[in-house]
Amino acid sequence: xxxxxxxxxxxxxxxxxxxxxxxxxxxxxxxxxxxxxxxxxxxxxxxxxxxxxxxxxxxxxxxxxxxxxxxxxxxxxxxxxxxxxxxxxxxxxxxxxxxxxxxxxxxxxxxxxxxxxxxxxxxxxxxxxxxxxxxxxxxxxxxxxxxxxxxxxxxxxxxxxxxxxxxxxxxxxxxxxxxxxxxxxxxxxxxxxxxxxxxxxxxxxxxxxxxxxxxxxxxxxxxxxxxxxxxxxxxxxxxxxxxxxxxxxxxxxxxxxxxxxxxxxxxxxxxxxxxxxxxxxxxxxxxxxxxxxxxx
Length: 296
Known about the structure:
Distance between the termini: 71 Å
Radius of gyration: 25 Å
Number of helices: 13
């Protein structure tokens, strides 16, 4: 069963997003609870990226079922399997709530907490669930540098109002609102399409009313020459966002949020890069003309 890197789980996966695991995932669960970890994250109190070191887990004693029996004991396979399953179930029973605490390497009074809950299905054959039920600082605070960077960049290519949609999407996702987070991602997508049309309206030769009545796929086809390549090649991102809003549940939206957010980011980064390239091009053309005039 594929589970994310623990650091990614701590810093990127939002509250109440359930991950499935079973007895084969014991090492991952045990590491989440007990392994000494060093993670790099934004420290809101320092105001910069810092290394956070994990504190010793005070409830570690008795939690490692793998240490509670000798796998080399001369037992029948069926008997050994029963022992393993019992120890696994005991581990789940004793660790319904997992707490991890980290201290900033720059200042140990700057603390980071994570709280997780295991939802027990009571049978080894069935999957158990683990979800993050609390954390400090919040996901928004931990991603403040990234959020600030994107808001500033988005304001250049969209509007201040649309730029704030990115922050809202991330904030809603971190609090477990998957469907609502999709609403704000879709607004960014729609805003980029509308702004591109208004910038190129004279070249396209189409009035606003006619354009706004078109379906999104037709709008994208019409603007293909002017929109980022990644958007044109992956225009179905809009369909996924719309399906998430109207058909998917919270859990399904939460699970695919990061993929769609990254897709939107690639589109916006490509747009920003194109704008910056045009600025550099105009500047160099102007300077070259000066050089040419001076040498003539």
